[in-house]
Design a protein that fits this description.
- With 175 residues, this protein is an all-alpha fold.
- The chain contains 8 helices and no strands.
- Helix 4 packs antiparallel against helix 5 and helix 5 packs parallel to helix 8.
- It is elongated and about 90 Å long.
Length: 175
């Protein structure tokens, strides 16, 4: 017994053509066209309501971005990291204090509420800032530097704390 593949293939093509020219498929295309038009109108209206020109940073990034230019923040960060080259306890502590201040300014300019960095971090959650627990830990080290004159840091601890601040700014796309 031999199969007639041309008959089977021809029948499949005829069946596909019948489906593509059927009223049901025309109805599906019509519904999809309406859906696409409604989706496009929704996007345009959403952008119009949010004010595309007014908060493009928020529209693109999902949150306000710092008002300072990326170049300005990067220069400040390089200056902060250059303090670590002196390899003294005082310069390492100063680098951590300045890095903490820079991150606090970024959090404030992004729009986190609070009168200080700890309150701003408390008002954020891990869905908004991936490194929130690490930032809290780094900020606590900053507080120890400020309030305990005998507090000492090992070089590894300084590197780890500075990496926390760097990772935060890197994830925001600032540095």
């Amino acid at each position: 017994m031999e199969f007639d593949y041309e008959f089977i293939l021809g029948g499949g093509i005829n069946l596909a053509n019948y489906f593509l020219n059927s009223g049901f498929f025309l109805f599906i295309k019509f519904i999809l066209a309406i859906y696409v038009i409604v989706l496009f109108v929704d996007i345009v209206l959403l952008l119009a309501v949010r004010g595309v020109g007014g908060d493009i940073r928020s529209t693109l990034m999902g949150a306000l971005m710092p008002l300072a230019t990326k170049k300005t923040i990067q220069k400040r960060w390089v200056d902060i990291e250059n303090r670590l080259n002196f390899n003294t306890d005082e310069q390492n502590k100063a680098a951590i204090l300045e890095a903490d201040k820079l991150v606090d300014e970024i959090l404030f300019s992004i729009g986190y509420k609070g009168s200080n960095m700890r309150e701003r971090l408390d008002n954020a959650d891990s869905c908004q800032i991936e490194e929130i627990e690490l930032l809290i830990e780094a900020h606590e080290v900053r507080n120890k530097i400020i309030y305990d004159s005998k507090f000492n840091l090992e070089k590894d601890d300084v590197t780890r704390i500075m990496n926390i601040y760097r990772d935060f700014m890197d994830n925001l796309g600032i540095i």
